[in-house]
Structure formats: C-alpha cells, structure tokens
C-alpha cells in the first residue's frame, strides 16, 4: 500500500470490499450504541463530533456546506453530541447557525465551555455562548482546561438549578494536568469530565477512568486519534487481520473502538470538517468492541 495513501482513499477502497460486509452497509436501519450518563440515567450516543479548528470558518456557503453535512450525517446515524468552546474561534456561532437553519436543535446534545477568569467574565461568556448557539439551554457546560474552576463552579450549579444548563463538567487535554484533575474530581461533584485518551495516550487508564466510574462521572474523550498524529502515522499501513473481529474497516474505526472498549468512556468526539470522515468515524459506534485479549493484541501490534 502506498505510503501516500490518504484516509479518504483508504475509506474508498474499503467501500469497495470489506465495508459492504462489515461496515456501514451492515448498519443500515440501526442506531449507534448509547451509554448511560450516571448523574441522570439518560442515554447518550457514543460517537459525537468536536469542533476545534474544524468549525472555525467564515460565513461563505462553500465553507459551511460541508459542516452542515457533517451534522446531518451525525444525526442520521443516531449521534447527538457536538462539543465546542468560546476558544474555538467562530465554532459556536457556526454550530448555532447550522442547527437553526436545519431545524435540528432538538437532535443535538450541545456541549460548550467557559474559558476565562473571574465570576463576572464567566457569566458574560456563558451568556454569549447561549446567544451564539441560538438556544436558551446548554446540555453540558464545562469549565475548560480547569481555568479558574473554583470561581465558575457556583455559577454552573446555579444555572443548572435554574434549568439553563442540564449538566456541568470540567475538561483538560494533557497528561500534565491529570493530577490536578484527579484532585478536583475527588473534591467536588461533577456530571462529566472531558479528557484525552488514545491508543498512544493511555495514562487515564491508571487513575482517572477508574475514578470516574467509582464516582459516577460520565466521560467524554477528546483526541482519540492522538491529536491526529497517530492516525496520520497509521493511515499508510495495511489494516491488521484482527480488524475484522470488531468490524473495523479503517484505522479511524480501530482507534475509536479501542477508546470505546473501556466501559468508563461515555462518548468520544473526534473532530472533522469532512462528511466522509464523519461517516467513517460514526462506524466506531456500531458493532462490537475489543475484548481484553484483543486489546492486548492491539497494544502489542500497533507500535506508537
């Protein structure tokens, strides 16, 4: 296989063969897997979409049309989670515009963040998020990267009590923050955490994922492709023979199914602006996941 083979080309090749047997064709009429949010019992689809960089576009129709199609495919497959943030440029406004234009707000589980210092700045930023997202209620408001979390947590609790947000959470995306995040998880009650986890980034397996399960905290996973670097590195390689055991027809599906094999994970949010990649990613939410024996093989067979 050529080392310059792109992910799109790989998906196309899969579509000519294995995909018809084990991929999206086999899922026609089905809905993706869902997992329980411990705080409420609500079921959440396991694959969503992140908007960092990918939804930071202007108002040109040619820039927004692929993103509208990304969301359409997400919803058509039974997905709902759209994760965004004020720090993602125009992403909140783009998400709000696209959902409003399509009339699909009721299909979306919108997760955004507060990312500033000070109570008053946090209030102003969250009010702006409501306006940009064209909604009167956010499904999940997260304190982004632990920034001034003590100042924002009382506001999040008040907004939840008032019905402005449904769930509250806290996020980070680097291993260097895991010790602090663990302390915050132990000291306060959270509905969600959002953390980095991938085949080449497994530190959360040691403490954070078990702690989330112990304390009844839902887990959203960011960077399931190792920040993109791991997927780029693997995309030139032939799929391993064991990929068929979990119905995976692409490296993206393998990496997503690795993450979702951990029962503490509630949802994974790979970011994309390409509809064909959204379709590929969504297949990670269907079929079977690796068992313990296959997980060991994956870790051993995929040098990272």
TrEMBL record:
<keyword id="KW-0732">Signal</keyword>
<protein>
    <submittedName>
        <fullName>Aldo/keto reductase</fullName>
    </submittedName>
</protein>
<feature type="signal peptide">
    <location>
        <begin position="1"/>
        <end position="25"/>
    </location>
</feature>
<feature type="domain" description="NADP-dependent oxidoreductase">
    <location>
        <begin position="47"/>
        <end position="283"/>
    </location>
</feature>
<dbReference type="InterPro" id="IPR023210">
    <property type="entry name" value="NADP_OxRdtase_dom"/>
</dbReference>
<dbReference type="Pfam" id="PF00248">
    <property type="entry name" value="Aldo_ket_red"/>
</dbReference>
<dbReference type="InterPro" id="IPR053135">
    <property type="entry name" value="AKR2_Oxidoreductase"/>
</dbReference>
